[in-house]
Design brief:
six-stranded antiparallel β-barrel
Length: 115
């Protein structure tokens, strides 16, 4: 669907699209999610596994999604206007904080598990 910058909520992800969420304070953690359902304003996503490769030194490296491993966690994310090139926002009632999601571009994502 065409990307209209005046109405970001018209952008559709597509069922099966993989999203990446990189987050953390003193560490960089990477989570992957797959789109299960979608409306104009929200998407239901399921956490999937990842394959980590420790190629960056002590407790660091890269991760790619592993779609063969589905987690139990399903979340509703809300589409918002871009912020730092991110188009999707999870408003978590459980934890009280937000996570931003990007479409996974097929490239390994860097992580750092060293706190």
């Amino acid at each position: 669907m065409e990307n209209n910058s005046n109405n970001k909520n018209t952008l559709m992800l597509g069922i099966g699209t993989v999203l990446v969420c990189s987050w953390g304070y003193s560490m960089t953690l990477v989570d992957f999610y797959k789109v299960l359902k979608e409306t104009d304003k929200t998407a239901l996503v399921q956490k999937i596994g990842s394959i980590e490769k420790g190629d960056g030194g002590y407790l660091t490296g890269t991760a790619i999604p592993d779609e063969s491993k589905n987690g139990d966690e399903q979340l509703r994310i809300y589409k918002i206007a871009p912020k730092d090139s991110r188009d999707w926002l999870l408003k978590s009632r459980k934890t009280g904080f937000n996570k931003y999601f990007d479409k996974w571009d097929g490239q390994p994502q860097g992580f750092n598990h060293c706190d």
